[in-house]
């Protein structure tokens, strides 16, 4: 039998929007995948030659870039943060929309005319790149969540974080001062697998057709 194709998905908020699309593309995990009590991380699929793995968003990109998974779904924030050369993101799935923005404490918005800034973010590369373009050296304090706490506790003057409704910023006394990147979820594939495994190319075509269909119907 063929080695199963490994499809990686993030475990959190993208998943609810991704599952219906995946189902239409023929990626349907076994019932245990939906059991909140299950501690399993790898799941059989309706198609016998496919398995689904559920990992953290940043790790989806890592598994696919290294060829441990052949395909997956992840936000374009993650794709851009790593810029892995072996990872190809051929289809914008038009789900998981949000943005990566700079935010500062309300009432303490500082000018951009500083040569050095300390910024808290889960995205050190995107943050540095953004400020480099403006000739500013950004010292990034890497956090994995709750960035919004950093300015009030003196850890940084600004944060770079994901914004969707803006509620988290508001409730933590911060305002959005600029947008770095508009984000949506992407189908990602391993470049080598795309060349050597025809199932990967077929998946890309199925997702591409589904997105085109959805656009045409809108
Ligand atoms: N409001 C939002 N906040 C955070 N991420 C969002 C938001 N809206 C869409 N996204 C997208 O969802 C992705 C996170 O996906 P998800 O929550 O499924 O992953 P996760 O594995 O739970 O993440 P984590 O590593 O933070 O636990 C982000 O990378 C981003 O592309
Ligand atoms: O603009 P909003 O709609 O308020 O959404 C943005 C918030 O959502 C995300 O956090 P998440 O809930 O994923 O938790 P995290 O802090 O662990 O990343 C993100 O990091 C923001 O904190």
From TrEMBL:
Pathway recorded for this protein: Amino-acid biosynthesis; L-histidine biosynthesis; L-histidine from 5-phospho-alpha-D-ribose 1-diphosphate: step 1/9
Major localisation: cytoplasm
Family annotation (CDD domains): PBP2_HisGs
Catalytic activity: 1-(5-phospho-beta-D-ribosyl)-ATP + diphosphate = 5-phospho-alpha-D-ribose 1-diphosphate + ATP
Pfam family, one: HisG
Domain ATP phosphoribosyltransferase catalytic: 56-208
Family: Belongs to the ATP phosphoribosyltransferase family. Short subfamily.
UniProt protein name: ATP phosphoribosyltransferase
Species of the source: Novosphingobium kalidii
């Amino acid at each position: 039998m063929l080695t199963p194709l490994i499809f990686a998905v993030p475990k959190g908020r993208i998943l609810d929007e991704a599952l219906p699309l995946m189902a239409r593309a023929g990626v349907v995990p076994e019932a245990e995948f939906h059991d909140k009590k299950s501690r399993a991380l790898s799941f059989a699929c309706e198609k016998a030659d496919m398995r689904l793995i559920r990992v953290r968003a940043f790790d989806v990109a890592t598994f696919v870039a290294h060829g441990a998974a052949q395909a997956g779904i992840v936000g374009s924030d993650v794709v851009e943060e790593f810029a892995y050369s072996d990872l190809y993101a051929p289809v914008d799935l038009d789900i998981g929309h949000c943005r990566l923005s700079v935010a500062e404490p309300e009432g303490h918005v500082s000018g951009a005319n500083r040569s050095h800034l300390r910024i808290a973010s889960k995205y050190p590369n995107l943050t540095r790149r953004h400020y480099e373009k403006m000739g500013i050296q950004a010292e990034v304090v890497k956090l994995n969540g709750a960035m919004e706490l950093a300015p009030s506790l003196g850890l940084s003057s600004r944060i770079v974080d994901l914004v969707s409704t803006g509620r988290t910023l508001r409730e933590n006394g911060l305002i959005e001062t600029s947008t770095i990147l508009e984000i949506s979820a992407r189908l990602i594939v391993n470049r080598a697998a795309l060349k050597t495994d025809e199932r990967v190319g077929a998946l890309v075509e199925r997702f591409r057709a589904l997105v085109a269909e959805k656009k045409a119907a809108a």
